[in-house]
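Have a think about this chain, tokens included, and walk me through the fold.
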Amino acid sequence: MELKKIIIGVLVLAVSLVSFRVYSQSRKSTEEKVRRITEKMAKKLQLTDTQKDKVYDINLERARGHQKAYEAGRKREVIIAAVQQWEKDLSEVLNETQLRKLKIKTSKHQAKNMENPKTLSEIKAFAQGAWQSISMELRPTEDRAGTGKVEPTFLKRHFTYLPNDKFIGVITLFGDNYGTLPLMEFEFKGNLIWHEEHPIADGAWKVDYILDEGFGVTPLNPGAAAMLNQGLPVGMTSFESGIQKDILGKAFPMFHIAEGQVVGDYDLIYFKHGLLFMGAKHVDGTPFDKIENRPHQLQIPLERVK
């Protein structure tokens, strides 16, 4: 009798262990599958690390919804509810461009909120992608010769915000109001450092553009190349029209850059109606090269590149 009880106890334990193992493998298999799906989405949508973590949780919740449907005999309404919740949750994490890639439609209310991000996480997500000037821009610029004279500068901007707080900024200078005389192009590559909210508007944030990965300079005509070559540092080869030269970490007196200096631009960022606003230049031409020179007003906006 005792032997029979022992045998039954062993059998019950064995069945329990097998069941637990099957459950653990099933759970592990589901999580691994969701992780693989999330990795593919991260690559396709260029998710930030924060977005990726949230998308993984959302995908896992959808998988659980499908599991409930399976357990309920694959009830259609359960599956539909899981998919709808998945789309709703993703709409709160992804930006408009990312949602379009997934072919997820948003309601007017969601679209409005997406075009007017407020929190820092919303700002970072919405900014991702390429942005360009909506027209030629005019701004005051401090005379590089140190005379104190303020000169008008005509330019266009093209900024790309990448995952993990990376950016590429291209500023093209022109010699006229309508962009018929291109002069010079600057390509900046580096990292973004985010700070607290900026008081200019609800949803505006202070951000630093740190040019620590690239500082390309391209003269766009022979006259611009000749001008750059007038202040050429010792040991630097001459500029040529149409050819970019990276001056990152190099001394360049004409731009007031010392050897090994990491250039920073202390700016702000704000979105309204789907447009991107940076800071307006100071009327006296003072650059944003110091924290205390951070702008107080808004510049002409950039529009998202379609």
